[in-house]
Amino acid sequence: MTYKDLSTTPAGSEGPILRCEGLTKAFGGVNAVNGATFDVPRNKITALIGPNGAGKTTVVNILSGAMKSDSGTVHLGSTDVTNMDRAKIARLGLMRTFQLSRELGGLSVLENLLVAPKVQAGESIFNIFFRPRLVKREERQNIERATEILRTYGLYDLRDNWARELSGGQKKLLEISRGVMASPSVFLLDEPMAGVNPALIERIGGYILDMKAQGVTVLMIEHNLNVVERICDNVIVLAEGKTLATGKLSELRQNKEVVTAYLGEVINASTGH
C-alpha cells in the first residue's frame, strides 16, 4: 500500500504534525471541550483516552473539521486549519473514521474505496471529454490499488457485495481501508476496536502498526488499555474537556490525577470492584 509522503505534504516535516491549543466547545452552556491543548508527534501512534464525557470525540470532530470550535487553534504541521472546511483538511492529508462506521451502503465494497482518492482526473468535465485516456489510466490504477488494499484487509472476496450487507466488524475494516485508500498523512481513528471480537482486535492493531511503519501518524480514541499499552507510543488523557496528562501509559499509571479521573474507573470496571 502507498501512503502520502510526509516530506512533500503542506504540513511540513519538522515538529509535531498536529497541534491544538486552547480548544473549547460548548453545547447549551455545557463545556464539552474546555481548553484542550496537546501535540501529536509525527510518525507515532498516539492514544486519546479519558472517561466518558471527557470530550474526546468532540476534539476529533474539531481536528477533522466536522465541527467548529468556539475558540482555540489547530495546526496541521505549519498550516493553520482552525475551523477549516473538512474537505480542505482532508486534501491536506488528514482523514478520520467514526465510532459507528459510516459505510456508503448503496455502493459496493470496491466502490467505497474508489470514491476515496482525492482530486481524481475523472472529476473534471474537461478531462472526461478531452483527456479520456488519462481518466481511464487513473481509474485502472485506482482499481488495482483498491484491490490490493481489500486483499490486505480481508475484504477482497466481498468486493462486489453491497457495503450495507457487511457485518459490524467488516464495516469497521471497510471504513479503515477506505481511509487508507485516501493516502493520509494523519489518520484519526474513533474507537477502532469497539464492538469487535478479540481476533479482529488483533488484526486491526496489526494494521495500525503497519500504517505507522509506512509513515502515517495515528491518533486514536481507545478504551481498551491493553491495546493502548501494546501499540501506542504516546497517550493523551482528557478529563472534563481538558488535557490532564500526556506520556506513556506505564508512566500515567503512576499519576494520581489520572488514576483518580480515569484509570481507577477502568480498573474497577474490569475487576468488578
Topology:
Elements: E1 18-27, E2 30-40, E3 45-49, H1 56-64, E4 71-76, E5 79-80, H2 86-91, E6 94-96, H3 109-114, H4 125-130, H5 132-152, H6 168-181, E7 186-190, H7 198-213, E8 217-221, H8 225-231, E9 234-239, E10 242-247, H9 249-252, H10 256-271
Parallel strand pairs: 3-8, 3-9, 6-7, 7-8
Antiparallel strand pairs: 1-2, 1-4, 4-5, 9-10
Helix pairs in contact: 5-6
Order of helices and strands: EEEHEEHEHHHHEHEHEEHH
Task: Determine the N-to-C terminus distance.
Answer: 45 Å
How confident is the prediction overall: mean pLDDT? Answer: 85
Class of secondary structure makeup: alpha/beta
For the record, the CATH class is Alpha Beta
- The total beta strand count reads 10
The level of helicity is 25-40%
User: In angstroms, what is the radius of gyration?
Assistant: 19 Å
CATH superfamily: P-loop containing nucleotide triphosphate hydrolases
CATH architecture: 3-Layer(aba) Sandwich
- Let me know the largest β-sheet: 6 strands, mixed
Biggest sheet strand line-up:
6-7-8-3-9-10
Strand content: 15-25%
For this structure, the CATH topology is: Rossmann fold
Number of domains: 1
**Count of DSSP H/I helices:** 10
Segments where pLDDT lies below 50 for 5+ residues?
1-12, 267-273
The 3D shape can be described as: globular
